């Protein structure tokens, strides 16, 4: 049996039984970043729990788009990519809906898809989770726009210049911002 075949779920026995959606966060929802307050609020109301630091089992492209927003691309095995580091959370169904709304799933910004991860720093068991990937309608363009180079962890360096939603231009959808970004050639975007 190969490593990818030995998939399991981490123990959540110390958490309320409603927390059964496992979500891998690689960007602004992580500790220390702008959207983590949303997860902190969900944790405070027992609708989410932090499970630890995890890494993808395969290399995937992680890039920044408009406003330095991070995007995980569902384009495995591309050159110049690495395994991506992030945080694993267990969510209630209502918390999952909140995060789906933040990620614009119904608007075509991101799509929530399966992903296998392992606990960071170890070669432990593979855990089947979900992550928010850039929507397939623009993922390949995002890869080209990034210079076909990804990074393994969204840090303060990659986040430098991040623009919070409240500070972004009004009257333009995020999908329109993505399209404008993809059609531009300015590397400083």
TrEMBL record:
Keyword match Cytoplasm: no
One Gene Ontology CC term in the entry: cytosol
Protein's UniProt name: Gamma-glutamylcyclotransferase family protein
Active site (UniProt): 103 (proton acceptor)
Superkingdom as given in the UniProt entry: Eukaryota
SUPFAM superfamilies the record matches: Gamma-glutamyl cyclotransferase-like
Source species: Lithospermum erythrorhizon
InterPro entries reported for this sequence: AIG2-like_dom, GGACT, GGCT-like, GGCT-like_sf
Family: Belongs to the gamma-glutamylcyclotransferase family.
């Amino acid at each position: 049996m190969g490593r990818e075949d030995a998939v399991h779920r981490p123990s959540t026995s110390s958490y309320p039984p409603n927390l059964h959606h496992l979500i891998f966060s690689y960007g602004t929802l992580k500790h220390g970043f702008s959207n983590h307050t949303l997860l902190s609020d969900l944790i405070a109301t027992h609708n989410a729990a932090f499970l630890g630091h995890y890494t993808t089992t395969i290399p995937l492209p992680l890039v920044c788009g408009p406003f330095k927003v991070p995007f995980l691309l569902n384009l495995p095995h591309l050159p110049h990519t690495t395994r991506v580091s992030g945080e694993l959370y267990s969510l209630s169904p209502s918390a999952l809906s909140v995060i789906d709304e933040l990620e614009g799933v119904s608007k075509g910004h991101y799509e929530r898809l399966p992903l296998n991860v392992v606990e960071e720093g170890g070669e432990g068991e593979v855990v089947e989770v979900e992550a928010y990937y850039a929507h397939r309608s623009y993922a390949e363009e995002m890869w080209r726009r990034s210079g076909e180079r990804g990074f393994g962890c969204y840090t303060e360096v990659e986040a430098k210049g991040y623009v919070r939603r409240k500070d972004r231009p009004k009257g333009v959808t995020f999908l329109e911002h993505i399209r404008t970004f993809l059609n531009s050639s300015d590397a400083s975007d």
